[in-house]
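Quick one, probably user error.
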């Protein structure tokens, strides 16, 4: 979905690095509202890739989908 430059789409493994950077930069701001930031066992880039890959497998097998918001290539 796209509207006025804002794109709502599935996360793909290629997004892992950008997600990793954004979460690292915003962690202190997000922590009060994003409980899993504290609960996550792994915060490495490999963990992000594995997490997104698992969500992709889940979606392809008929499960739920994990969506991200983007403005161009930037995570919104």
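Nope, works fine. Designed sequence:
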């Amino acid at each position: 979905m796209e509207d006025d430059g804002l794109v709502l789409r599935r996360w793909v493994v290629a997004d892992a690095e950008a997600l990793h950077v954004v979460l690292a930069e915003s962690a202190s701001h997000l922590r009060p509202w994003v409980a899993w930031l504290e609960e996550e066992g792994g915060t490495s880039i490999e963990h992000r890739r594995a997490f997104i890959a698992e969500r992709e497998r889940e979606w392809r097998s008929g499960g739920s989908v994990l969506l991200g918001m983007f403005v161009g290539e930037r995570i919104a």
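The CA atoms of residues 30 and 37 lie 8 Å apart.
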